[in-house]
Amino acid sequence: MFHPQKFPARSRGTAAGLLLLAASLLGLRPSAFAAPAPAALDLSGASLVLAPGMTGPEKKAAQMLVEEVEKRSQVRWPLVDRPSAAGGPVVVLGQRAALLQAFPDLAVKLPGGPNDAKPEGYHLVSLAPGEVIVAGNDARGVLYGAGRLLRLMDYAGESAPDHLGKVTLTAGLDIATAPAYALRGHQLGYRPKTNAYDGWTAAMWEQYIRDLVIFGANAIEGIPPRSDDMADSPHFTLPPMQMLIEQSRIAQEYGIEFWVWYPAMDRDYGDPATVAAALKEWAGVLKQLPKLDALFVPGGDPGHTSPKNLFPFLEKQAAQLRELHPGAKLWMSPQGFDQAWMDDFYRILRTEPTWLEGIVFGPQQRESLDVLRVKVPRRYKMRFYPDITHSLESQYPVPDWDYAFPVTENREVTNPRPVDEAAIFHRYQHLAEYGFLTYSEGCNDDVNKFVWSGLGWDPHEDVLDILRDYSHYFIGGGALGEGFAQGLMALERNWRGPLLTNEGVYTTLAQFQDLERTVGPSVLENWRFQAALYRAYYDATDRARLIAETEQEAKAMDELRRAGVSGSLAAMAAAEKALAPPEVMPAAQWRARVFELAEGLFQSIHAQLSVARYKGEAIGRGANLDLIDTPLNNAQWLNEQFAAIRALPSEAERLRRIGTILNWTDPGPGGFYDNLGDPANHPHLIPGKSYAEDPAFLQTPFIGVGGGPRAEGQMIREIPRARPQAAQGGSERRAAFAPQPVRRISSSRFAQTLHEQPLEMLYRGLDPTAHYRLRVVYGSGSNNVLIRLVANGSYEIQPLERKILQPDPLEFDLPPSLTAGGELRLTWTGAPGLGGDGRGVQVAEVWLAPVLPVVEPPRRNRRE
pLDDT digit string (tens) for 736-779? Predict the structure, then answer.
């Protein structure tokens, strides 16, 4: 089947376009001048010819090619020494030099070009009547050429999408290419928190690694048995050490790089005894690996060791590493360092230790990659470590994410973000010239991995074409593949703007339902298809519930407005009835389908979308099925308020408290109200840079969520499953968390900034004669965070002190001199030099209103 996106620009002529333009100008149907469809080579009966003297990884490439063709078509290509004299379709595979030496006549068919000498590149040509040549520049080039061929072929006829036994390829292909970046990899951690990976067998790991290789990845990164996680999982198919060995073996067989992310988890690396024990422990792990190319030690996230102790420890580890795996390199990152430690880090780097290969830029780094690249000596390579897996509380959170999504789908939901990931790549990747190895904690980010692999090979490739390639290979060709690719784009659009008005969410579901009704069992059982369906149904369920619960709250507020007539107790009773969950949940069938798909994903890839049902590690670790009924209105907060109001001694007090609820967002005459967590309702917040300029929000306010309504039984962030063993040497995770008081939704979402970046608001057009009062509700982050508030650059409203977390607003009377000029600038800052995740300033709601004079009622004459 013809796939125009498969061809490089030089393979597409302009003749067809000119004919179509002429047809348009002449008023003719385009078909009158339509260019003939490219001829298709039938490779169903092809033989596979291999270059003599192939290395192990090249033979693995041939095995991969044969097995993947057979899976998709039930056609198994036989291996032969040379093309048959009788003719017939043939696929020739090997390194360019070996092929030309064994088959000199191929020289005419493989003209030289600028990409022929580049590492990992390949040249692929398809010639009528049935000859395909895949010539790699080196062993990895053979691997990636075979992968590209697999992606280009069709395994079904146009009239019978489910037809097996046929393999075709467009004739006339001439693709010579090589990757732009030397390192293109992904972290694959076999540990409890990775929401599916801990249930995978070695065979499942090989298939997934093969999938990544087919799309150009050349590195994977494993995790040692001891990290910031539980020591065991009820889903493990092998002990963690044994699976790490298996991952290393797989990388060796395919000839790709194998890295290990090894956090320094011990308490004090300034203690010689600790260092000696760590050297012994690490050696015990690393010496068992068949292959190791690099060791990456994060400075933090997790770990917390000052550079003055970390660098000497790493120098000893580097020496040990060279003995265990000659040629392996050591990398480190300054993640989590505060300003003082960053200063020490740069000071040590200026001495240029020779044992250090390079620096990694990852999450929780207080300085941008732009700054890091300038300050780090050029002798050190720079590797990017982008977080592609988390949707909030992360390096690259979803911008302006509607409140309904983070409190239900949460942090590790299936998250295809092709447009956002491309923006992150184009903003930063050129600064990490060596390449990237992404930060991932599960297959929820599967699509994002392939976007990064595609852009790492060709930074100019359009993300929709990458998705088409992905969908064509994993889901199916023709309209099915195109529909799935467009559906993945639509899932990202579901997360744009207010969910209440985003009708596209239902359109996205309808498109996936059309696919769901037409595909066969093999696609319905395909975990990538199931994961996309899960998101589409979950998104639509959220929107249906949000609409219904918003209407419920509106009815409840109407009942409260009648309190002056009906009485406070009757009004609250009527409001509670309006807020009560209905007997039949909104979108009950969609919600039921979400549960069915969760079961399907557990069966297909052991995805643990629930703590209770599937023994997921925690709600915050992908078990978002447990959050599907989280309230999306203020019912919980209102019911708590009603209970407190009923305890008041007088009707007047009860009515006054009801009035506070009704008028919560009303600043009064001449006043202003900003809900800083609502992108549509914070007109006075000073914005930062665009997402394309600052996707990490290092200089830009961004939206956070916490402390709002909770699903029944839900704790603050996550409910861990009961575990037989605690994490060894790491920060132990408690079995439960003390719940915070329920807040209003408007108080549960907030604007926040990182590190020293201020959060600022600007008011213009104020009454210069008025006396204003400021009211503030802070976000629900840690109570230990320090925060300072200054007006107009110099007047301190609130000194640097611990942030007060309370549901009621803090109040500050402002001196009239601050607003006498008609303007007011408010600036919040946190403590300077923060390390860790750098979060400090979190502001939820702000009221600025003139203080109205109290008017005494006129006194009556005593005689009256």
Answer: 334 567 899 999 999 999 999 999 999 999 999 999 999 999 98
- Find out whether 412 and 374 touch, Cβ atoms under 8 Å: no
- List Cβ neighbours of 511 (8 Å cut-off, separation of 6 or more): 483, 486, 487, 490
Indicate the Cα dihedral angle 398, 404, 409, 410, nearest 10°.
60
CA dist 402 and 624 (Å) reads: 16
Are the beta carbons of 514 and 483 closer than 8 angstroms?
yes
Could you give the C-alpha distances from 847 to 103, 666, 668, 684, in angstroms and in order? 80, 9, 10, 11
Distance CA 473, CA 495 (A): 26
Answer whether 363's CB lies under 8 Å from 387's CB: yes
H or E stretch including 521? helix 521-524
pTM for this structure?
A: 0.92
Q: Is 703 helix (H, G, I), strand (E, B) or coil?
A: strand
Location of structure tokens 């923006």: 423
- Please spell the DSSP secondary structure of 399-411, one letter per residue: TT--TTTTTTT-T
CB 152 within 8 A of CB 172: no
**What does the alpha-carbon distance between residue 747 and residue 807 come to, in Å, rounded to a whole number?**
7
Three-class secondary structure of residue 136 per DSSP: strand
Contact in structure between 167 and 43 (CB atoms under 8 Å): yes
DSSP state of 227: S
Cβ(288)–Cβ(251) below 8 Å: no
List % helix, strand, coil for the chain (3-state, nearest 5).
Answer: 40, 15, 45
Given a contact cutoff of 8 angstroms between Cβ atoms, the answer to whether 762 and 823 are in contact is yes
Pull the structure tokens for residue 755.
């590190």
The answer for residues whose C-beta is within 8 angstroms of residue 510's C-beta and 6 or more apart is none
Q: Which of 673, 651, 712 is nearest to 849 (CA)?
A: 673
- CA distance linking residue 96 with residue 160, whole number of Å: 37
C-alpha 806/C-alpha 457 separation (Å) is: 50
CA 113 to mean position of chain CA atoms: 38
Four-residue CA torsion sign, 173, 213, 465, 471: positive
CA angle 19, 21, 25 (to 5 degrees): 115
Instruction: Walk across the sheet containing 759-763 and list its strands.
Output: 759-763, 824-830, 786-791, 795-802
Coil/strand/helix, residue 291: coil
Q: Which residue is it, tokens 């393999």? A: 167
**Cα 679 to chain centroid, rounded:** 21
Q: What is the largest CA-CA distance in the chain?
A: 128
Per-residue DSSP letter, 158 = T
Check residue 439 and report its DSSP letter: B
CA separation, residue 284 to residues 233, 280, 287, 321 (Å): 22, 6, 6, 11
Lowest mean pLDDT among 286-300, 457-471, 630-644, 831-845: 831-845
Across the chain, what does the average pLDDT equal? 90
H helix and E strand count, the chain: 25, 26
Angle at 849 between CA 843 and CA 854, to 5 degrees: 135
CA distances from 366 to 340, 363, 786, 842, 852 (A): 11, 9, 17, 17, 44
In sequence order, the 6+-apart residues with CB closer than 8 A to the CB of 222 are: 188, 189, 190, 244, 247, 248, 258, 259, 260, 261
β-partners of residue 176 are 123
Peptide bond into 581 cis (omega under 30): no
Tell me the per-residue pLDDT of 722-740, one tens digit each, with 9 for 90 and over: 443 333 333 333 333 345 6
Higher pLDDT, 598 or 802: 598
Distance CA 124, CA 122 (A): 7
